[in-house]
Amino acid sequence: MIDIHRREALRTLEEDLGYIFEKPELLDLALCHKSFANETGVGNTDNERLEFLGDSVLGLAVAKLLYDLVPPMNEGDMSRVRAYMVKEETLAQVARSLDIGCHLHLGKGEEQSGGAEKPSILADAFEALVGA
User: Fold this and answer.
1) What percent of the chain is modeled with pLDDT above 90?
2) Would you say the pTM of this structure is higher than 0.90?
3) Nearest of 28, 34, 22, 35 to residue 9 by alpha carbon
């Protein structure tokens, strides 16, 4: 169950995304880093499975967009552009533009070490968000 303050914060993120989640608990899960899940003892309720799904969805969506370009690109060029668009640095930039870092559930150690700004954590959270 998501408490009222967390739900309000997630609504702000939904507004920024332009998408309202049918299951807000999936949005909350997408923002739950494994360090938080480990510290709170909630077990397998971190964003890694959603990240796995989101990575595939994102790769497919970008591939489809590139495939439909007019004029068409050759396979090599499409592969290079797709790799650039789904790489960690690019996804972290997108996550920063959406201010995802301030919505993350992080463990104390990760939070103190600036985890909300780490490119790997931001990129993974963005992929999990796509999966959600």
Assistant:
1) 90
2) yes
3) 28
